[in-house]
Amino acid sequence: MVIEQEWAILLARIQFAFTVSFHFLFPAFSIGLASYLAVLEGLWLKTGKGVYANLYRYWLKIFAVVFAMGVVSGIVMSYQFGTNWSVFSDKAGPIIGPLMAYEVLTAFFLEAGFLGVMLFGINKVGRKLHFVATLAVAIGTFISAFWILSVNSWMQTPVGYEIAANGQFLPGDSWWTIVFNPSFPYRLVHTLLAAYLTTAFIVGAVGAWHLLKDRANEGARKMFSMAMWMAAIVAPLQIVAGDFHGLNTLEHQPAKVMAMEGHYQSHPDGAPLILFGIPNSAKERVDYAVQIPKASSLILKHDLNAPLAGLDTIAEEDRPPVGIVFWAFRIMVGIGFAMLGIGVWSLFARWRGRLYDWPLLHRFALLMGPSGLVAVLAGWVVTEVGRQPFTVYGLLRTADSASPLDAPAVAASLVAFVVVYFAVFGTGIWYLLRLMKKPPQAHEPALEDAPIRSAGITPAPAVLEGEPA
Predict the structure, then answer these.
(1) Do strands 390-392 and 285-292 pair parallel, antiparallel, or not at all (unpaired)?
(2) What are all long-range contacts of 64-69, with beta carbons under 8 Å and residues at least 24 apart?
(3) Helical H segments across 264-312, by residue range
(4) DSSP per residue, 186-249
(5) CA angle 264, 265, 269 (to 5 degrees)
(6) Membrane-spanning regions, if any (predicted)?
(7) How far, in Å, CA of 342 to CA of 284, rounded?
(8) Dist CA 442 CA 203 (whole Å)
(9) Measuring CA to CA, how many Å separate 146 from each of 74, 171, 212?
């Protein structure tokens, strides 16, 4: 019976990981893409250059598909709180529920109110009103990320709660303490920068693809240039933000950092930075380790000889799975430095006047297209697996959070999710790639074919073609 319960919990965790991984890909792209669209439309209104209007319409079609898949996958994922994790929902619901409701009341309502105007009103309303709609959707994606990350951060660093007699977590004197919990500001900045980089490298890859085919394509040149500026500016900021986030994690979730670093043993005189190796939890060591002596103490404590505690100070039943966290962290960091490298390379190419005619740079940018998506998934694995064996860190164990379901029932639903997700979202991703394969046109068509005046001031025909009025 105990073994069957363990299997049921494991399958429920795999199911949630599978669905949230699919879901996370789309907001990670749509958050940055919504802001990119706002920048494009703002530049068009300011400069009157048709290239910005054409790029706006080109990426608006892609945004519509990405946004739709993000909403659908998010709704499906949320049902699992009631089906597979009902005990967690019961105990943490008084805190998690209102925060999720705030997301609906703010972000969803804002996006729902302006999304239709943004997608289908470009030829039907005035230019300023349409720009307001684009800004509203972009702000809505930020607000959505704000509340979701606040929820997740509270689960990582729970504060401001009281525990009732029935075991429920109840809010204390101030909701602001819960919302702005200790890890939330760092996680918000780190995640938003990751979303912007994800979008930048997808946009850059699309631009590079079309530059390899036609270096004279104005739209491809502009999108590649903007993407490389974002990579050059934001990648170093992300590395700094990640360092601050890591220091915050060391303070509040030391076991997670120990797993990230592969520190099974404590180091009283300075801990090494293990670059690569094979974690061996059975023997509590990292086999074949390639390491830099005392560098971990320098990074985490800014002192070569600073002592660092290891997993030997943590009870075995409270340790996260080291192997998964160890390698996911290295994937995330490795991609981050690769992004920085592309950004620096692009600055050199720009200085040399070869940004648009350096095929090797374009091929590497194309190769890095999905890197942001891989990095955010690796970061999510570090965050969530590193929190184990707890759902609410240090307070509520994952084993005590699951619904009383039989393993075959969870397995059946997991198989159904895998089949449906790969069929539906696989088709959606194929369609996105098909849209990206087409080069931006000189007069990019809007989502609707025949403009129908509904409100506001209908732009002149020249504006509809992406030219200044």
Answers:
(1) unpaired
(2) 64/119, 64/447, 65/428, 65/431, 65/432, 65/435, 66/26, 66/29, 66/30, 66/33, 66/432, 67/26, 67/30, 67/115, 69/26, 69/425, 69/428
(3) 295-301
(4) HHHHHHHHHHHHHHHHHHHHHHHHHHHH-TT-HHHHHHHHHHHHHHHHHHHHHHHHHHHHHHHH
(5) 135
(6) 24-46, 58-79, 99-122, 129-149, 193-212, 224-241, 324-348, 360-382, 410-433
(7) 37
(8) 18
(9) 15, 19, 38
The structure tokens listed for 221 are: 């040149």
* Tokens representing residue 468 in the block: 């200044």
Return the structure tokens found at 122: 């470009």
Task: Please provide the distance, in angstroms rounded to a whole number, between the alpha carbons at the two ends of the chain.
Answer: 73
Which SS3 state, helix, strand or coil, does residue 269 take? coil
Q: What is the pTM of this model?
A: 0.90
Q: Where are the domains of the chain?
A: 2-266+309-464, 267-308
Nearest 5°: phi and psi at 321? -65, 115
Output the six-digit token pair for 212.
């390899």
Distance, CA of 269 to CA of 325 (rounded, Å): 25
For residue 233, give both structure tokens: 């500016």
